[in-house]
Amino acid sequence: MMKLITPLIHVAFLIPLTGIAVGVEAFLRSAAVLGEYKGVIDLPLFIMFLSSIIIFGIPLFWLANLLMQRFEKPHGPTVYDHFRQSLFFYLIVIYSSATWIARGFGNTEEDGYLLLWIGISLVGIVVNYKFLSVRRKVNVT
């Protein structure tokens, strides 16, 4: 039963990380580090989102993996556990890519959020894979 809940726990961390990234953006705009919002994604905004996703996302998703481990108590994690736990992040990447293939990247606020969620999803996927691979090495020896 818990194996059905842990992907939901994992994807739930998308919401606070989105809030953190947008909060960092708002703070940097109020401090005049970033320019006025023009509704487009430019390089400083991209770098700011990427750095905030990496700086805050890695520890946050490591915490999510510790929480999921506590619920599941896996004996020997497999690659299937990774795909199951990160299922929703893979779906976000597929949905965003399909959206852009179908209608193109419009450089709008909606596309900005899709790009942000792809970045968060990729960090979540990589951290989950790394967490499970470290855990598998510890269990084998």
Explain how this protein is built.
The mean pLDDT is 85. The longest helix has 32 residues, at 109-140. The chain contains six helices and no strands. It is mainly alpha-helical and 141 residues long. Helix 2 (14-30) runs antiparallel to helix 3 (43-72).
Task: Give the SSE layout.
Layout: H1 2-12, H2 14-30, H3 43-72, H4 79-85, H5 87-103, H6 109-140
Helix pairs in contact: 1-3, 2-3, 3-6, 4-6, 5-6
Please tally the β strands and state the result: 0
Structural class: mainly alpha
Shape: globular
Query: With helices defined by DSSP (H or I, 4 residues minimum), what is the helix count?
Result: 6
Average of the residue pLDDT scores: 85
Please identify the oligomeric state.
Answer: single chain
Alpha-carbon distance between the termini? 28 Å
Strand percentage lies at under 5%
Helix content: over 70%
* Residue windows where pLDDT falls under 50 for at least 5 positions: none
Question: In angstroms, what is the radius of gyration?
Answer: 17 Å
Q: What's the main sheet like?
A: none
Following the backbone from N to C, one meets helices and strands in this order, namely: HHHHHH
What keywords describe this structure?
6 helices; 141 residues; mainly alpha; single chain
Brief digest:
With 141 residues, the chain is mainly alpha-helical. Helix content is 81%, strand content 0%. The model has no long low-confidence stretch (mean pLDDT 85).
